[in-house]
């Protein structure tokens, strides 16, 4: 019940109308097709901060405090616990890649009906906590017709760089943030990282296999 309440709290007030990087040493990270994901547990590990494919060993998400689009506060760990979660980095004033990223999540919603019932969710995680207030995050979700299993949140200013390093590119600017999607399993572990601007089909298949 607590997990359901946390997701509901973050979504409360929402109006539905309104090429892989090299490893150290030069070898390429392991890459897996969508069809091989369920068998990928035996694959070679890749670094957490580079490449794409399965993350092994899984990396626990930073348990930082977030402010959701409803104005509710929750830790990242509590938001993802018990859910298969796709996380994308974004900021609402972006006019280039972020709307494309949101359109990908919008399609994931259509590919995975009844996400809430399956314990699957989408998280748009802002890297601009100063501008991305709950009001701005709510408007972003309405713009892309987000359902109840698609939430948005922003960290405090002091934690923004930490999350951007964990989920994307260290020391990158807002305009140059990662467009990869990070998949977190139901125990709060980062287990998969897609290519830049992945297909909705890839995201949906990985989520449904967790």
CATH superfamily: Glutaredoxin
Strand tally:
8
What is the global morphology? globular
- What is the highest CATH level, the class? Alpha Beta
Q: In the CATH hierarchy, what is the architecture at level 2?
A: 3-Layer(aba) Sandwich
Instruction: State the end-to-end distance.
Output: 21 Å
In round numbers, the mean pLDDT is 80
List the uncertain runs.
Answer: 1-9, 12-49
Into which percent range does the helicity of residues fall?
25-40%
How many helices? The count is 7
Helix/strand order: HEEEHEHHEHEHEEH
**Radius of gyration, CA atoms, in whole angstroms:** 16 Å
Structural class of the helices, strands and pairings? Answer: alpha+beta
What is the makeup of the main sheet?
8 strands, mixed
Within the largest sheet, what's the order of strands? 1-8-7-4-5-6-2-3
């Amino acid at each position: 019940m607590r997990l359901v309440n946390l997701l509901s709290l973050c979504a409360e007030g929402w109006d539905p109308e309104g090429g892989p990087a090299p490893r150290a040493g030069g070898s390429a990270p392991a890459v897996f097709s969508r069809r091989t994901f369920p068998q990928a547990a035996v694959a070679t590990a890749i670094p957490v901060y580079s490449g794409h494919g399965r993350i092994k060993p899984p990396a626990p998400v930073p348990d930082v405090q977030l402010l959701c689009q409803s104005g509710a506060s929750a830790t990242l760990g509590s938001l993802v616990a018990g859910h298969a979660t796709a996380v994308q980095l974004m900021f609402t004033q972006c006019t280039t890649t972020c709307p494309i990223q949101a359109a990908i999540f919008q399609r994931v919603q259509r590919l995975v009906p009844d996400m809430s019932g399956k314990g699957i969710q989408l998280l748009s995680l802002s890297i601009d906590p100063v501008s991305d207030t709950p009001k701005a995050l709510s408007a972003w979700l309405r713009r892309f017709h987000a359902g109840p299993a698609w939430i948005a949140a922003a960290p405090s200013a002091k934690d923004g760089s930490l999350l951007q390093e964990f989920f994307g590119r260290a020391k990158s600017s807002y305009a140059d943030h990662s467009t990869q999607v990070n998949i977190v399993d139901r125990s709060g572990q980062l287990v998969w990282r897609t290519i830049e601007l992945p297909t909705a089909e890839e995201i949906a298949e990985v989520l449904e296999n967790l």
